[in-house]
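Internal ticket #5521
Category: modeling
Description: The requester needs a full-assembly model to guide mutagenesis choices. All entity lines are attached below as received. Residue total reported by intake: 453.
Assigned to: D.W.
Attached entities:
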Amino acid sequence: MPDPTLPTHTNLFLAGNFAPIEQETTTFDLPIHGKVPDELEGRFLRIGPNPVKTPDPYSYHWFGGTGMVHGLRLRGGQAEWYRSRYVVDSHEAKALGRDPIPGPGAGDRDGIVNTNFMGVDGHTLALVEAGSLPVELDYELESIARSDFQGTLEAGFTAHPKLDPSFGIYRALTYEPNGPVRYLTVDQAGRVSTLARIDLPHSPLVHDVTFTATSIVVLDLPVTFQPQAAHTSFPWLWNEKQASRVGLLPLDGDLSKLQWFDAPRCFVFHFLNSYDDDERVIVDVVRHDRMFASNQQGVNEGKPVLARWTIDRRTKRLTESILEERGCEFPRINDAIGGQYYRFGYTAHWGENVQFGPSMKHDLERGITEVHDYGVGRIALEPIFVQRQNAAAEDDGWVLSYVYDSERNASDVVILDARDFSGNPVATINLPVRVPYGFHGCWVPDVAVGEVR
Ligand SMILES: [Fe+2]
């Protein structure tokens, strides 16, 4: 029951463009300003929470809304269609009077799916973490079935598997209440191998993964499963008693060689990238000072910053430097260099009290940041880098974002030339509706459906 001494009428994560849209949309032949590159033939997908019915603002958590996927199909320089569809889960099916989707997990692993995508073996999966199974989507974004990777997944999955381009497999860390943190790989046929089960009885929130040529990086930070203290649907909270540490686990999952290093007291959802540098490991993170401490309804503990953690295996010490003081989140790179030395990162601005706006391109070699301001009242979230075919440089490609235009109360898809980041967009496509602030996206080229991050 809600605590009657606390306000129940406000929840930032239901206000403005966080508010859900009330219906699915299908529309064709969208207006374009500029020129969509011919090479961009495929779909630009985005996913986020979109509660089916107005939730109780006191107990609603941003992570707890039914998922909605958005997709823009580009071909031949045209924007052929835009669609939005609920990701069908058991609650959503009941609320909308729809048939539940088939597949494994009914009853215990069929919760909401609202966080990210994965493409493997020609299938596009919508993902969530902390126990539920992915939902496979068809080309036009309809939910088909739950997936447990042909029966090879032993528990829940994660929202952040990451393709290791050096090996052509995904690497992932999964977590759920009262279970170990599992280190998994997913091969190109979509079959899971569980390589390690890391016993962490305090059940930390482990959202993302990053890897180097030798190691998986495991975060054990002070946000832990505390259902007795939670007043929202997301029971992971700041834990004053828990220390911060970072683990380096060999890629083969040999737990006897897992090394832990003391880390700054903070919380990290996302990595930018990591790589080996002789005896050091460079780990670039978006660092929040705390999480789910003063605000249980969503991510709102001040501005996060881009930080570099240098882990020295010889001295067994971790040192931190700040790469970007301006608030930022949703870090992305050219995925072709995951786990390797790299120069460029892309983030969305995230200021105090969850103020979004421009996007940023970080040149980590030169220590400079370029900013793309989309204009007054125009607000971007995750910038997705799409590499040009036969790219001549790491940043030879485009940066795609869904951008909310508050004056139009609708969203655009904006395509930037990554090498002219602060210049005028290459193309802007007007959508007839807004895309609520959400989480992650991906570009799925038609020639390689499934090969997404
Ligand atoms: Fe994420």
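Resolution: model delivered.
Comment from assignee: Helices lie at 90-96.
Ticket closed.
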